[in-house]
Amino acid sequence: MGQDMPKTADSFLQETEGERAETRPAQPEDFDSTLETWQIVEGLGRLGLSETDIVAATGANARAVRRWRAGQTEPVRHWKALDDLRWTAHFLSEHRVLTDRGIVAWLRSRNRLIGDRRPLEAIAEGSFDEVRDAAYVTVGQPRPSRVAAQTRDGAEAENVAAEVISLNGAASSRSGASSKTKAGAMPRNERHVVPSKQGGWDVVKPGSSRASSHHDTQAGAETRAKEILGGAGGGEAVIHGRDGRVRDSDTVAPGNDPNPPRDRKH
């Protein structure tokens, strides 16, 4: 009779669906509605996060995470960090700017918006507000903390540009400078070409939960993104790779501009 193989750090993510179904109820389709601890841990695992990632975000040990997944214990001291990780993963997935692999890379990579820390580490340190702001910027929405501060001051809410960042924390601006605009200025018009979860490529407007169009090839999606921008007064076409990272961006002139900007990168 053979001996059981020792479990690896991530073996808890590799059980079959049949094994789980024998002892657990069906999982909710909407990750945002997941309330049971084991469902949260499994949902994060399906996204691609490892046991090591969950340990890094919560400050718990690997044994504790395995017990959470088995439904044996609850993360009393680590509940807030686990829920913060769940919210961040769901928010980024919901807005479809990044693929699942891109979300995992985003959580593991240093980010300039949170002081060059990794979001997983920042969550463990209790800096969820900073991680939340960085997530909003990534999908092209104003930072909640900035809007709240201006509301408290009684000032008119600042019009913040779609600060979409690459996963290594660098701004996706052509000049490398922040794309934040001054109050009253128009935000930069952008369309992102991103890999689709269904295969192929999507053209996505920052802040929108649905793709503007779907294409079999990246080149086709890029062409359509530029057509949309040209008809909408011009803007920036931001091209993502298969891993979700920004690999290029092009300024698109308005369709009726007699003197369009020169492309200095190609």
What's the gist of this structure?
The chain has 266 residues and is an alpha+beta fold. It is built from 10 helices and 5 strands.
Detailed description of the structure:
- The chain is built from ten helices and five strands, in the order H-H-H-H-H-H-H-H-H-E-E-E-H-E-E.
- The chain has a five-stranded mixed sheet, with helices on one face.
- It is of the alpha+beta class and 266 residues long.
- It starts with 16 loop residues before the first helix and ends in a 14-residue tail after the last strand.
- Strand 4 and strand 5 (246-252) form a beta hairpin.
- Helix 2 packs across helix 5 and helix 5 runs parallel beside helix 8 (128-138).
- Residues 1-29 and 150-186 have low confidence and may be disordered.
- The protein is elongated.
- It folds into two domains: 1-187, no CATH class; 189-266, no CATH class.
- It has helices spanning 17-23, 37-47, 51-58, 62-69, 79-95, 100-108, 119-124, 128-138, 144-152, 218-231; strands at residues 190-195, 201-204, 213-215, 235-240, 246-252.
